[in-house]
Amino acid sequence: MTSPPTRAARGRTVLHPLTVNGETKDVPFLPHETLLEVLRERMGLTGTKHGCELGECGACTVLVDGKPVLSCLLLALNAVGTKVETVEGLAEGGKLHPLQQAFVELGAAQCGYCTPGFLMTAKALLADRPRPDRPCLKDALAGNLCRCTGYLKIYEAVELAAERMAREKPPRGA
Amino acid sequence: MKPFSYARPASREEAVRLLSPTARPKGGGYDLLDLAKNGVSTPGTMVSLAAVPEMGKAWTGDHGETYLGGRMTLADLATLPAVRAACPVVADAAAEAATPLVRATATLAGNLLQRPRCTYFRDPFFECRKRGGAACPAMEGDHAEGAILGNRLCCAVHPSNLAAALLAAGAELRILTGVDGKGEPTWRTAAVDPAFFVAPEEDPLREARIGPGELVFDAVVPPCPSSAYVEVNQKASFDWASAAAAVVLEMDGGKVARARVALGAAAPVPLLSEAAAAALAGKAPGAKAAEAAAEAAVAGATPLRDNAHRVQHLRVCVKRAVLLAAGRGR
Ligand SMILES: Cc1cc2nc3c(=O)[nH]c(=O)nc-3n(C[C@H](O)[C@H](O)[C@H](O)COP(=O)(O)OP(=O)(O)OC[C@H]3O[C@@H](n4cnc5c(N)ncnc54)[C@H](O)[C@@H]3O)c2cc1C
Ligand code: FES
Ligand code: FES
Q: Which residues in chain B land under pLDDT 70?
């Protein structure tokens, strides 16, 4: 995989290879552009939401090498040479990801603005801890804010998805 | 955001060579980018420390001291068992900061050197002493989250959890100052003590005594197993501290031989409360001594019109931190 550039000059738009949802593309952007701006405005991936821009709401959460990051405060340059995952990459072959399916079934999204961020944070959590208990789940999602649902439905949806995913992929040794 | 250049040096020597008053080192970048977006600071170059080796690790020295790399994340500081065992005050402070999403990226040096969170400071629409203005609008305006100590000129509280913890722990920073003629790095050390922080009376434009061309390589923390950091927040899930206390106890038998009590989110700089430390010296660290320390810590408080609640919050933090520290390292 390409390593991140070591220098980039102010005001110069340069093509950089970005790997998003498994596909590598050369994307033109300036050194001061955030990953959020590049995803939405340069790549047309508007699933990732633009909320507070301050690191407070988590609407802009994407995964960088599997780790949830706030794309509004990350330079796109820092994502070169990494694997970026956004909400657009969750569904496979027209089938919703178990997290998305559970959010739909349990009504864990109302206006939906926070949903992509929650889905990405939850995906990283379940990769790390397939069956988190409620306190662990609440703690992991504490950086994602929702103004509509009151959170309960979101916790229940993540738990339902975790249960289904565990059934599909039993733990090693089981 | 005003355009800037970017550099990603692969060594500490290259990193320090690239720094200048207009080139800022970038840890997580979570504070730098926020300030750049609202136009409060406009660096010419961001020097990313992501590829500088050694700065992302913790290790233990020959005398039990812990070396904490300047770009270790708050998540690592909060969770590494070695850090928790040797200096729980640092682990607590990191764990209490921000959200898991922020902690996964924000760094030790970036947290220590982040700028205040006062709304007036972060909005160039307002005049602010911290941006060279002649007045502090928060004095008459919204200061519910403002300082209750040292607030004569400016009432923006120091935002950093780690600053209070490192102050209580008596940590020392190892700072790279440049490279000599042979290309070897030059160093200085700076104790994280009251003299490291800069109060508004001396210079409102900065909070720490560190030059623009300097790089915090790591923090060396003496072993302090009987230590704790406690904060009080308005919201239960995550919030900036309404008050915080970092306490380190040196025990002799069942009594406190020496204490260091640092107060966070209380003043424009983290404060070491000599009075609280004196209230603990020679005492068994039970509820009575903890309450006396808490009372001593807030004795000089000068709350503003809308933030007297923070005095009580600070009392509570000191008391709880003393009791928690006393229960540890036995
Ligand atoms: C929603 C939210 C809530 C938060 N809550 C809290 C909280 O409760 N408590 C708390 O303490 N913090 C809190 N923070 C701050 C956060 O923890 C980060 O510490 C902070 O954003 C800066 O960390 P950083 O590594 O991103 O620093 P950066 O933005 O990279 O840097 C900050 C400053 O440090 C300088 N710097 C960075 N590394 C070095 C180095 N090695 N040597 C010299 N200078 C250096 C930079 O030049 C810059 O001036 C919060 C942040 C957010 C967004
Ligand atoms: S938009 Fe990034 S945290 Fe709110
Ligand atoms: S569903 Fe509206 S903000 Fe969460």
A: none
pLDDT digits (tens, 9 = 90+) for A29-66: 999 999 999 999 999 999 999 999 999 999 999 999 99
The dihedral of CA B292, B294, B296, B298: what is its sign? Answer: negative
**pLDDT digits 0-9 by tens, B241-299:** 999 999 999 999 999 999 999 999 999 999 999 999 999 999 999 999 999 999 999 99
Q: What fold, for A14-88?
A: Ubiquitin-like (UB roll) (3.10.20)
Ranges for all domains in chain A classified under CATH 1.10.150.120: 98-168
- What is the predicted pLDDT for the residue at A18? 98
Cα B319 to ligand 1 centre (Å): 28
Q: Do A9 and B29 touch (CB under 8 A)?
A: no
| Nearest-atom index, ligand 1, CA of B26 | 30
A30 near B CB under 8 A:
yes
The domains found in chain B, sorted by start residue, are 5-47+62-328 (3.30.465.10)
Classified as helix, coil or strand, B320 is helix
- Residue A11 distance to chain B (closest CA, Å): 6
CB contact set of B96 (below 8 Å; sequence gap of 6+): B161, B229, B231, B241, B244
Q: Has the ipTM of the complex gone over 0.90?
A: yes
- What's the confidence (pLDDT) of residue B237? 80
Instruction: Name the DSSP letter for residue A63.
Output: E
Contacts of B48 in chain A (CB under 8 A): 75, 77-78
Nearest listed ligand to the Cα of residue B234: 1
The correct CATH number of A98-168 out of 1.10.150.120, 2.30.30.40, 1.10.3720.10, 1.20.1530.20 is 1.10.150.120
Which residues, at least 6 apart from A92, have a Cβ–Cβ distance to it below 8 Å? Answer: none
| Three-class DSSP category at B145 | coil
Q: Residue B130 has what pLDDT?
A: 96
Instruction: Determine the residue among B1, B2, B5, B6 to mutate to test chain A binding: the one whose Cβ has the most chain A Cβ atoms within 10 Å.
Output: B6
- The distance of B37 to chain A (nearest Cα, Å) reads 9
Quick check: pTM over 0.90? Answer: yes
